[in-house]
Amino acid sequence: MAVKGSVGDSRDPLTLNCYCTVVKDQSPLQVKSLIELTAEEQETASSNKTRVPLRFVAVIDESGSMASTIGNETLIYKMKIFARVMVRKMKAEDMLGIVGFDSDARVLLPITQMDKDGKKAAMDSIESLSAKTFTNLCEGILTGVKLFDTTEKCAHCRNGMVVFTDGIANQGITDADGIVSAFNSIAHQTFGSNFCLPISTLTIGDYKPDLLLEISQRLGSDAFFWISDMNTFETDMMIPFYLRETSLVSDVHVTLHALNGATFDIKKMTTDRMVTGTEKTPVEYHIHDISASMAKHLPCYIIIYDKEKKMKNKPILEVHVTYRDYNNVPRELRITIVFINVTLAELRKKFKQQTNSSDKAVIAYMDSSVPMAITEVTRAETAVAKIAQEECRTITLQAINNAADYFDLDEIVMSKDAIKETTDYIVQRKTEVNTVLSGESAVLMCERADTMIEALDHCLTIIEAGRSEGWQTMKTMASSLANESPTVGKIFPGKARPFAPPGMEAELEDYQKIVDQQKQQLQVPQKPVPPPKPKTFKDRHVAVSEKLSKASQEKIKELIIEHGGKPVPFVKKKAAYNMLVCSRAEFNDKSVKVRDALENQIPIVSEEYIHESIKQEKMLDFRDYRLI
């Protein structure tokens, strides 16, 4: 079986495609399906169409570390430039709010329309940004959410939030579950269940931004943004704005119904986009928005227990999509997939016979109201290629995630093996598909396979080099693959930026021109570059006890990172963890971490050791601070 169904007409900015193939020699019978959602701007309507106004909130870190210098510019200065560029790019009907956060959060600019007066107010508020104390990320996010309202004036706006921090959350709620729960609670209480607010998160630095990564995946549909190129910092910060500005559809809900006794293989269908679903109940996915010339894919695996002959020509899947178009008007698409099991060889033979006769047979889409003049063979080959393409993406995503996790645990061999095994599989899969496909279908699959192999090779280079930012780079790549969304530069090999819409690179160049103009206009005297801080804990791995207060834990971790070390979660025999920081009480209780450290002869020291070593700009003798 290899079929494709599609719906969408000239009035719809969203097209729904469904591709299906039957898994060979499997009992019970399994059908691989791929749901494809493509947002395309319609040429006939583009001249008369104006985009819905944006309602955007920037949530900006003002913690003390934002005073750190990159080249001759502080981070807080670079954030001011980014905010000014965003104000410049907004149209008069757009709205902007700005929140700054350190230990607490403050509203620098309430939601304000970006007409002439509004832009002046925004520029003034941006200048008040300054580096202060700790990092209460949760309070910043929640304050940003509260800025949005549901007045009639804003009922037809496209919402978005961008959050930037350069360090670990060490005040307020500091775990992902807590932050997501607090966000959902406030959003539901204030706006109801129909409020769609995509959150994009951005960060820099050598610390492990696992909290921010998880928040971005659960509260947004963009890639995670870990900025590694300071030369394009401000323009990279603008990517979420570009994606909101060019989005054609928003608040996309996809509901899958298995029909006639078919069930779902739910384990193979689970992604961050899944909202709910079981083997025997409808499965729902949610995507915040889709920009012009971008596509999103959702996996669907259907198990059929009845005999094949009994299921012939019976519906096995219904796909129902609801969304809002570029005018925020609710729309829907619906398609039903019928079970037809036929091989490519049989189709080719049938088509050859038909084309030799006077009957020039073509096949229609599953929705009979939408004619499609393609041959049955072409449709089947496209389905095979698309599903193989999707398998390459998802298996690469899994491999890079696994490799990053192993890399973080210093399991270098396992990290490399995860990459190599997947590369070998994709090469094999590419060969298999090329034996049954030809022409455009084969090219389609090969291009995706080659792109994934390049990404995997890049990860292998990172692992072999032992780069300190390896986890961040690989997790950012995986996030881009998972969300089919462009991320910042210098993450993928070379100049590659997979999933970037065609017009994005040109727009980024325009942003960069505005960045240069803003820096010239501000004429801020360049500060002398301060001498770098001594890397007191260079290449040292430090485990920090959870028995310490939350504030102490996070402060110690920040200091370790700032002075060249790496906080690690465990003391392990195979890894080169150099010390454990804990309290006297935990040492006396002989916790698991303490026992592991003693067994592996790893020094166990008090908090004072960290502070005194930094003060004297060198690692002091362990013996004076050991807990024994």
UniProtKB/TrEMBL annotation:
Chain ranges of the BRCT domain: 532-627
Gene3D superfamilies: BRCT domain, von Willebrand factor, type A domain
Residues annotated as domain VWFA: 55-252
Cross-referenced Pfam families: BRCT_2, VWA_2
Species the sequence originates in: Branchiostoma floridae
Protein name (database record): Uncharacterized protein LOC118413919
PANTHER family noted in UniProt: CALCIUM-ACTIVATED CHLORIDE CHANNEL REGULATOR (PTHR10579), ZINC FINGER (C3HC4-TYPE RING FINGER) FAMILY PROTEIN (PTHR10579:SF43)
Domain of life: Eukaryota
